[in-house]
Structures are given as C-alpha cells and as structure tokens.
Amino acid sequence: IAKMRFSTPSLLLLCAAALPTVTAVHSSLSPFLADLRIVTTGWGEDMEKGLAFASSSAVPALRRTDANKCSLQSSSTAFARGEGVMAATESPARMQRPTATNGASSLFMGRAAAVRANKKGKTDAAKAKLYSRYGKMVTMAVKAGGADPVSNAQLSKIIDQAKSAGVPKANLENALKKATSKDTADYKESQMEIYAHGGIGFVIDILTDNNNRAAGDIRTVVNKKNLKLAEPGSVAFNFDHVGRVQVQTDADEDTMTEAAVDAGADDLEAMPEDEDGKSGGFNIYTDKGDLMAVADALKEAGYTVTDAVFIWKPKAPVEVTEEEEEMNLEAIDMLEELDDVDAVFTNMA
Q1: What is the dihedral of CA 24, 30, 34, 38, to 10 degrees?
Q2: 319-323: long-range contacts at Cβ-Cβ below 8 A with a sequence spacing of 24 or more?
Q3: Rg of the chain on CA atoms, in Å
Q4: How confident is residue 335, by pLDDT bands cut at 50, 70 and 90?
Q5: Residue 68 CA from chain centroid, whole number
Q6: Integer CA distances (angstroms), 198 to 66, 227, 283, 319, in order
Q7: What is the pLDDT of residue 111?
C-alpha cells in the first residue's frame, strides 16, 4: 500500500475494503500469525477525518501512530518495503523496543568472532614460525655434522628440543630428508638493527639462505612503518646477548630458583599464565657459553626444557606512549611474518 502512493481518501477506502480479507486471513492463519495488527498513519488534516471514521467503525486494529508510515506487523516475520515495515512483535510493549539492541547484539557477536579468529590466526602463525625455525636449525646441523643424530650431538639436541616444543614428528622427518638433499641451501645467521618509534630499538635475528632477499624484505617493512635502519652495534649495545632456557613446569618460583642456580643459570623469570590460568613455566637466563650445559642439567633434574636459544635481553626497558607502542607492535608483527626473520627483540617496556 505504501509503495503505491495512493491519495489519502483512496488509501482509506482501500484499507477499509481490504479489512474483511485480512480478517479472513487472520482467522485461517491464527496458529501461525498471532497478534496480527494493521497500523496506518495519516498524511495531513484529511487523515484525521479518516481516523475518526475508523474509530467509529468496526476496525479495532486501525489506529494512529506518530510517524508517517504504514506497517503490517506480524509475530512470525519481519521485512521492510519502501515506507511499509513488517516487524515481528509479541505485544504493543515490544513494538517500542529499539531495534538498535538487536543490532548491538549482532555487532558484539561479530566482534567476538573476529577476536577469536584473530587470536587463532596469531596462534597458527606462531606455530608455523616455530616449525620453520626448527626446520632451518635441523638443516644447519645436518650440513655441519651429518644427518645421523647418534654421531651429530648438535642435531640430536635440536631434535629433542623440537619434540619438547611440540613440533610434529612428520615435520622433523621432512626437515631431515630435505636437509640431506644437495639442492637444499644452507642457512646462515645474521642480525639487523632498527630505530623504532619513541626512542626504542629492534634487534632482528635472521636465519636465511638468501641474505639479499632477507635484507630487502626487512627494508620494505622499515619504509612502510616509518622506521630507520641502524648501524651495527648502535642498537645492540642496549641489550645483553645471553642464553635463554624455557622450562615448562608447575613448580613454584623458589623451587625453580634453586634448580636454576644448581644448573649454573644466572637469572630467571616466570612466564605469563596461559588462557586456562595454568603456569606458563619459567625463562632461565644463562651466559652464552653455558646455554646447553644449563639446559642439559635441568633435563637431568627432571624438568621439561621446551627451548634453549640465544636472545637479546634489554638492559633498561624504555617507556613509550600508547600510540608509539601500537606503531611498534604493528611493525614487530610485520617483521615476524617474514620467513627469513627468526626473532625480533625490543627494549620497549
């Protein structure tokens, strides 16, 4: 009716003429269409007379609203056409409920799903990065000392660490097979240093079989995120290059401290709890030359060592603004997505 744009008198006559048909439909479909109402609104003074006529006739469902709209409301369906609106209702009170509530609920659900998807995506990316890193380490160990873990102690330790870190057996077998191929290039370790936002710096550990590609990809991120390449040593002096052993355990800090000291470690800190509130374990720091000795001692003491690597530990973390922190975190994410980047270290607090 609303889309046809009838004149006011014609519209009234049409609504009145259609009432018996609507009543019949209501009677036959009452199990499905409860609380059927026809609501029409007026255009100008002529409609006031029409409403007076409707109120004096047997048209109980014809009444005025405060908007110039014509709507057919049913408790079973909801749609909108031109100026006409069909909305699901259960009572007159429900008709007054703002539709923004449902929109907000849908929006909330959409955001929650997006957060879960984003979190899952980051978790999957972290796993892929971990698997790739151990694959490269296997290749380096094989190229240096052969593919037999019995005779190649370094390879044996890498495989043990990879298993403790959750790297699938199939991934390790594929890495070993690939490493023995003559076509597989060896990987080399290097570093690049970057000035970031807020006076902080990045030290990037690179593990690549193509230094030119790695440097080019990193420069692309530097330019895109308004960072600045630094000369070797100009950022690294703010860090200590140390060993870090990660231990997964439910032991308390006092017990772990005693075990770390006995193993020859220099320091330790508790890792954040996981999503279930369980202990994340401990980071145990060592001198570079003592890394593997400490890791082996902790294993012999019965602890689960999930990683043993060299890291750049900041000497004095630097505070930055929220905006600078956000920009730096975005840059770190982009750098860590690069295949040739093994890890990014920062002295941002």
Answers
A1: -10
A2: 319/349, 320/197, 320/198, 320/199, 320/200, 320/348, 320/349, 321/198
A3: 35
A4: very high
A5: 46
A6: 57, 11, 27, 8
A7: 46
